[in-house]
């Protein structure tokens, strides 16, 4: 049943691996058993990661927007705090959805890359699972994978561990059982460690300070994933074949490097990575000979692009009293760095910065009006039904007389 559902993806995975193997044989690697099949799995990893790169970028942007929106989300949640009636819950959900639409984000966009990659991962598992049966002639060819190719793959190893073997069934590898257990354990451990550091740099380095609060559901979810996913990997790794573990480890290393690059060059405003980037840019501009005013102007323009607000220039005396040194940033903190409930003035400034349409209303106000309009229509409908029922009762009384 599983192979029937995943058959198209398994066919594509088999063709990609075989094509990469043929290209490696063309450039001089062994066409039979050997490291070319290991490199083919690594090549499959690169192909898959490149295909899901647009989804990954969308995931990062969506996650970043969700982090920036946390103060506004907290304001809405505080507004309806303690209200558990259906009307209040519905209005809260409508205002949250309007906020997500306004900023072009979604709660589920961050799951897209994982949802796309999981069928590929399970298909690779089923392909490697089918290799022994194909090599023994118990199963027909799978795409380009014939009996000869499957036999060559079966005889390919990673440090003496066959690619189709796994920790759980290491005994099937005969004399190589010890190698299988050692290699599988090292790969699973490395897979868990890389997963932990990937989640850690995403949670601790690229989240705004205002979002790193135990009351923030997104922060709690990230922490659970940071500590929970590596543990899950430890148990799952004993089931997967060496070839799948190679694919998974290579993917984790790719993700860690890709994420590190993205965080370094495009961090979330208000996060530790953002402050480090601002410091690097400031030092670079000073080395280039820019004055403090020029640096402040550039930082103000960048803050406006990121949704921040520029602080009005201070005189030398006021700057001295405020403890601001020449060349320091004159850009106010990003809204993600402010607590939503810090002061009434900040709330008013945030509300005034909301985008209003031609009707002069924000998305949240427009959603509220739609809700009130529907409620009024329902009240009128109920009143009409009550009047019809009352008239029917009166007519019934007249007929009884």
Fold and architecture overview:
The protein contains 15 helices and two strands. It has 401 residues and is mainly alpha-helical. A two-stranded antiparallel sheet has the order 1-2. α8 packs parallel to α10 (242-265). The longest helix has 38 residues, at 363-400. The chain is extended. The model is unreliable at 308-315 and 326-353 (pLDDT under 50).
Overall pLDDT: 76
Taking the sheet with the most strands, its summary is: 2 strands, antiparallel
User: Helical amount among residues, as a percent range?
Assistant: 55-70%
* Secondary structure: number of strands: 2
Strand order, biggest sheet?
1-2
Span from first to last CA?
Answer: 72 Å
- As residue ranges, the low-confidence spans are 308-315, 326-353
C-alpha-based Rg, rounded: 30 Å
Short structural summary:
The chain is an all-alpha fold and 401 residues long. It has helices at 2-26, 36-51, 53-68, 70-79, 86-103, 112-135, 147-154, 177-205, 217-236, 242-265, 272-287, 292-305, 316-322, 344-352, 363-400; strands spanning 157-158, 161-162.
């Amino acid at each position: 049943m599983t192979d029937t559902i995943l058959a198209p993806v398994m066919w594509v995975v088999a063709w990609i691996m075989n094509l990469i193997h043929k290209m490696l044989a063309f450039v001089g690697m062994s066409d039979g058993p050997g490291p070319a099949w290991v490199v083919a799995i690594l090549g499959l990893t690169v192909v898959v990661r490149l295909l899901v790169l647009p989804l990954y970028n969308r995931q990062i942007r969506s996650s970043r927007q969700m982090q920036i929106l946390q103060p506004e989300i907290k304001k809405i949640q505080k507004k309806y705090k303690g209200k558990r009636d259906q009307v209040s819950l519905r209005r809260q959900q409508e205002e949250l959805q309007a906020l997500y639409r306004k900023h072009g984000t979604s709660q589920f966009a961050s799951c897209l890359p994982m949802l796309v990659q999981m069928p590929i991962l399970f298909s690779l598992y089923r392909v490697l699972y089918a290799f022994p049966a194909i090599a023994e002639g118990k199963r027909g060819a799978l795409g380009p994978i014939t009996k000869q190719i499957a036999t060559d793959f079966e005889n390919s190893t990673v440090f003496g561990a066959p690619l189709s073997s796994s920790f759980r069934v290491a005994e099937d590898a005969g004399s190589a059982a010890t190698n299988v257990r050692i290699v599988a354990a090292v790969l699973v451990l490395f897979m868990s460690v890389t997963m932990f550091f990937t989640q850690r740099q995403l949670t601790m380095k690229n989240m705004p300070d205002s979002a790193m609060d135990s009351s923030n559901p997104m922060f709690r979810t990230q922490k659970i994933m940071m500590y929970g996913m590596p543990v899950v990997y430890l148990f799952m790794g004993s089931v997967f074949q060496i070839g799948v573990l190679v694919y998974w480890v290579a993917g984790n290393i790719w993700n860690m490097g890709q994420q590190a690059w993205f965080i370094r060059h495009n961090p979330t405003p208000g996060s530790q990575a953002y402050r480090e980037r601002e410091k690097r840019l400031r030092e670079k501009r000073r080395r280039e000979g820019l004055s403090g005013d020029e640096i402040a102007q550039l930082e103000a323009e960048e803050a406006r692009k990121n949704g921040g607000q520029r602080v009005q220039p201070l005189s030398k005396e006021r700057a001295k009293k405020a403890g601001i040194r020449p060349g320091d940033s004159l850009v106010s903190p990003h809204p993600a760095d402010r607590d939503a409930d810090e002061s009434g003035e900040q709330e008013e400034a945030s509300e005034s910065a909301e985008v209003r349409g031609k009707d002069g209303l924000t998305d949240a106000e427009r959603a509220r009006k739609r809700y009130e309009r529907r409620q009024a229509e329902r009240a009128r409908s109920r009143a009409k039904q009550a009047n019809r029922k009352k008239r029917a009762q009166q007519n019934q009384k007249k007929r009884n007389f």
